[in-house]
Amino acid sequence: MLLSGFAIRSKIVASGHRQILAIQMRGELLDIQNALLEKADHSVHMLTAGTIAVIPKEEIVALTLARPRIGHAIWVYTLVEGSIFREWTVNVGRRNARSRIAHLFCEFSLRLRLAGLGRHDEYELPMTQEQLADATGLTPVHVNRTIKALEADGLITRPNPRSILIADWRKLADEGDFDSNYLHLTPQEALIV
């Protein structure tokens, strides 16, 4: 379990390029699906400094068998992870660069707020432009141009390279084709004030 910091899931292709598949935040389980699988099909790395709690996979399996409600909660957790993964696949495969970045910024705003790491309209982005490129299938140069265009259009401002201030969340969400349903939040969690 990630107690602090940020982690990424990624794969390296034959050319040496990395595709970031997911961002993990405080309070999230890292690689819970591998409690039942013998071999991981991707890597998990810390994106920032942080702390993890290591729980032996045998203990996870025993706990889920002894406590069905915990087993159900972990099952639901992995299903939500799958839902987020599918949305990231659509983001890379079917959205243009502007929508990809806007979508990611909206997702971060909700997930960081829920983790107590930001607000829906203001947060510190835990990724460099190179890492954003690896997550969105773009080049770092294209990411830079896209972020600058979002700024020029007044959708975001950045007091420093890692700060994101969202001027109009709904407009950014429209730009990013963002619908939070894939995050499976409660109505209260999904509420944008």
Quick structural gist:
Helix content is 45%, strand content 17%. It has helices at residues 57-66, 68-94, 97-114, 129-136, 140-152, 169-175, 187-190; strands at residues 2-4, 7-12, 18-24, 43-46, 51-52, 118-119, 122-124, 156-157, 163-166. β2 (7-12) and β3 (18-24) form a beta hairpin.
Number of strands: 9
Helical amount among residues, as a percent range? 40-55%
Total helix count? 7
Overall shape: it is globular
Q: Under the CATH scheme, which class?
A: Mainly Alpha
Order of helices and strands: EEEEEHHHEEHHEEHH
Distance between the termini: 30 Å
Model regions low in confidence, pLDDT < 50 over at least 5 residues: none
Mean of the pLDDT scores?
94
* Cα-atom radius of gyration: 17 Å
CATH superfamily: Winged helix-like DNA-binding domain superfamily/Winged helix DNA-binding domain
Count of spatially separate domains = 1
**Mind describing the biggest β-sheet?**
4 strands, antiparallel
CATH topology, anyone?
Answer: Arc Repressor Mutant, subunit A
Secondary-structure-based class equals alpha+beta
Range of strand content: 15-25%
**Order of strands across the biggest sheet?**
6-7-9-8
CATH architecture: Orthogonal Bundle
Explained architecture:
The protein is globular and about 55 Å long. It has one domain (2-190): Orthogonal Bundle (Arc Repressor Mutant, subunit A). By secondary structure, the chain is of the alpha+beta class. The protein is built from seven helices and nine strands; from the N terminus they run E-E-E-E-E-H-H-H-E-E-H-H-E-E-H-H. It has helices spanning 57-66, 68-94, 97-114, 129-136, 140-152, 169-175, 187-190, and strands at 2-4, 7-12, 18-24, 43-46, 51-52, 118-119, 122-124, 156-157, 163-166. It has a four-stranded antiparallel β-sheet. Strands 3-2-4 form a three-stranded antiparallel β-sheet. A two-stranded antiparallel sheet has the order 1-5.
